[in-house]
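TICKET #2291
ISSUE: user wants both folds in one file
ATTACHMENT 1:
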Amino acid sequence: MTTEILETQSTVLVIDDDDYSLDLARLTLGKLGFTKVQTAHDGSVGLRLLDEMPEPPDFVICDIFMPERDGIEFVGELAKRRYPGGVILISGGDAQMLALARQIAVASGLNLRGAFTKPLQQEQLHQALSGEVSA
């Protein structure tokens, strides 16, 4: 299956407490043509990076289960900030919590592009980032 390269000028912020998942996301995003990727190990660091960016990233990919500030709290903060970009939620754990986070994101008015279990597959990520699938 061939996946087309997406717009390389887009910025992506990936938040996950697992180093392997961060490396995999960076690698997969690179294969899709993204060169502007920042990462954070928890929601608190992710919010700090978000606040320091001159422009909000085009996409945020966020794990649900993390120390400090988890993905559900992070989604709430994105909603408070009226984050305009696309949001992708991921989880290696409980599917019910992922579904709950999805509902919260949608109810908060965020541009949810997808909610997926780990490991995130390249085709899933491509479709979510290109808007080919609805959340």
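ATTACHMENT 2:
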Amino acid sequence: MSRLRGVLIVDDMPHTRCFVSRILDREGFQVYEAENGATAYAAARAHPDDIDVALVDVELPGAWGREVGEALKRTIPDARVVYITGHDIDTLVAEGRLPDDAVVLQKPFTVAALVEFVRAHCR
């Protein structure tokens, strides 16, 4: 039996985490949730071989999503980091809040777009 594809959702908004988690769980993904950088790092350390994609909100308490994403890549180097934001991507890159080569899922997104995007970025 093959393992489920794993997704780590890092977002400080409980309703966003819950919404994304329910959708991806229903679609057959193994979902891990974190509300900030510290809980994201803990999840990555606990499940390094199980996380294929980390969905990281750009604005998190105590750290920018870029910092969290870069730290996650050091812990789970084979995972894909995807940033989620409702802000202008070019502005975020210009301000250094996103890397130039960031993969971004723009909010608001549809259920279908979320599922398709995550499937496309699983390793």
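RESOLUTION: both attachments delivered.
EXTRA DETAIL ON ATTACHMENT 2: The helical segments are 14-26, 37-46, 65-75, 89-94, 111-121.
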